[in-house]
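Quick one: Fe-S oxidoreductase from Magnetospirillum gryphiswaldense, structure tokens please.
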Amino acid sequence: MNRQANIAICPFSFPASLPLGPSIIKAFAEEHSDFKVTCIDLNAEWYNTFVDAALAGKSFVQFSPEAKADFAKAAKMFRDGGDVFWDEAEYQRLSRFFESTIRKVENVFLDGFERACAHGEYVPPIKAYAEHAARKLIANDPSVVGFSLMFREQYMPSVLIAYYVKALKPDVKIVFGGGYTSACHPSILFANPFIDFVVFNEGEGGFHALLMALDEGKTSFDGIANLIWRNPEAEDGWVKNAKSPSVDFKTQPYPDFSDYKLAAYFQPEPVFPIMSSKGCAWDKCTFCTHHRSYSGAHRAAATDRVVGEIEHMVNTYGVKRFAFVDEMISPGRFRRISEDLIEKNIDITWYALAKPDLIYTEEILEIMHKGGCRYLLWGVESANQRIIDLMDKGTTPDGVAEVLARSTRAGIRNHLFIIVGFPSETEAEYLETMEFLYQNRDNVHRILACGFSLDNGSIIFKEPERFGISRIWDVSNIATISVKYDVERGVGCFDTEKHALFWKNNFFDHFEAFKGDLGLFRNHALLHYTYPDRIKPVGGRRVPNPRKLKPPPYQAGPGGKSDRKVLTK
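--- reply ---
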């Protein structure tokens, strides 16, 4: 057996940062076996190819001379930076235009992939692209080709490209994995006869064990944790093995990003992802399903290992900007990591997700800032205590306000997650959140809000009555994570995005500088906060009083139609 395995990252997910999961799997498999694993980012390649074609006038997108000039400026801004990256007015204008153009092209291709996968209708560019991608994935004669999916939009492109990989090289083994794959029911994936295996939850141990089993010529895979495998003798045609923690941090090498081109990720200075723990230290939020990406309880790497990984990335790739992608890091752990970075004189800046607990003292936040922290993404979600308790956040509005004030005084910017339309939430309760944001506007530097999404596997999904949900739509055969539902009171699921968009346009967006929604803003924000002296601000920003706004009627809307779609035949 040829000991070559490839891992593909397929469109469509705007290439805001380097893929972390495949890099972890690659490093682990290569350190613990004789296999060579190559990560192939078809996703980043697709976006760069489109941009280059558009700039050369070879894309189906038609620009006026003025629009073409703006597109060229935006592309250069995202790729190379330059003065325009620091000009707030131009950044906002160009990023909106760039995003709008990209989204339109994505939708055209997504429609083409859906028609091909669901109905067998092939638009010529889709077939040509899928065959091109498949040939690239088998060019080095792999025995295994894996597909890493983090988002729903990657599903149909991955399926179609996998189909052509198998058609061109019938003996290759096709493996699907990643966060989105873990959320899909196996019957959806194995309805595609060319998919042989699915790795769910944590992938490095399962993928490595699968490679070893295939190399030994095994045909039964019962003992491999976190693996689903095709078995014609099983009742359903597949067998799902038990899940378990994949590997210990002590035996896990640092991620290997060597297969990626740093210039392909639409940011003028690379921002590297780093994961210092698996799972969530809090792990109680009733709306959350992130636990599906991990096996077992929360596990954290030793502080010296985390700082060692950062130091390795600095020395190996010359990077100085980092994004902690942990679900949550405790204040004490942040303090120890920051103190080690200070002691070793590692000059970096970084951001992370956090829970706004009062145990974030001013001293801890000051140490974090000295250790390179420039902003935190706080899981605030709501400022109404009944809703906070339903979410099981373990916070209070007064406590959150104090933490935000302390963070600002320490020099750390505050980005807040807010959920619009939580089940049973009334208009008066949501206006409490708006009023809270308005009263604390000097300590709120960006709001990231979305309409509530009911995810299959969350506590709310399992106990809907407790949250005022009267009916959940049929979810027996879907490949999507979020599901539709009806509520007894409050805003219904068919209207949450409408309300979220209203508040975004009329309220949330007035808090921040450098607006942008391509997924890039998290990394771009770090660069803006790292070099504040370069910024040319718009000035004159004023947050409106939410009591003077007129949102859409806040009422439940039972009924309607499900947007469920069949993704494969």
